Amino acid sequence: MDSAQQTADFAANGHQFFLPHLSIDCVVFGYHDHQLKIFLVRYHGHEAWSLPGGFIKRDETLTDAANRILAEKTQITNVFLRQFHTFGDSPTRLNRIETQQIHNKIYAKVNVAIGEDHWLSERTLSIGYYALVDYHTLIITPEHLIEEYGWCDIDKILPLLFDHHEIIETALLTLRSQIYQLPIGYNLLPAKFTLPEIHALYEAVLGKTFDRRNFRKKLLTLGLVRQLDEQRKIGAHRSPFLYEFDLQNYHKALEQGAPLAY
What fold characterizes domain 190-255? Predict the structure, then answer.
């Protein structure tokens, strides 16, 4: 069965294998060129973009479903993934006709008509998960109904379908609140980094500036990072030392309630 047939079969019979009223939308955060980014997709028939997502199988847990959906769409496994909110109050999710019209444009590519009583037209609640990935490791598995995909700067989000703007805003607020409790920097930076790079990351995530010397002192005092015997040559007279996260100390600091605010 080719991808077009698989897609048509999903539209016709998906309700037998997936929960019709419950889906997962994934806010995938990446970091590149001092910018926090969101991964988005654009479906056939629409100018607006969407978050990657999918339905939950009848026999799998929510977290298993979120990991499966990301693995199917991005080939990423063992990703940092957190559930953060459930969405169902927006007018779009309550409007059956609008939902039907959105899906009809998408599935027109495989000549499938979504009627008013179709399972894809029913009201669907969405469980939001956010994921933190290394920008450079994301590999996309093209889907038949997706026309385009790519990264978008967090402060330049494109027009979105459904209530995905609300989902992204809530995910960002959650990320900012949890950056003080979870090893978020570890998941967005390469294994080895300079102090200016981690400083720039935290500024990008939190949307504010920090005194460079105080930030460095806080990190080193808490033992969250350790200096390596390696330097990166970035100019004639500039060869900053490289650092890496000390995960043992990081988790110890979290368990003991050490303040990670800067």
Answer: Arc Repressor Mutant, subunit A (1.10.10)
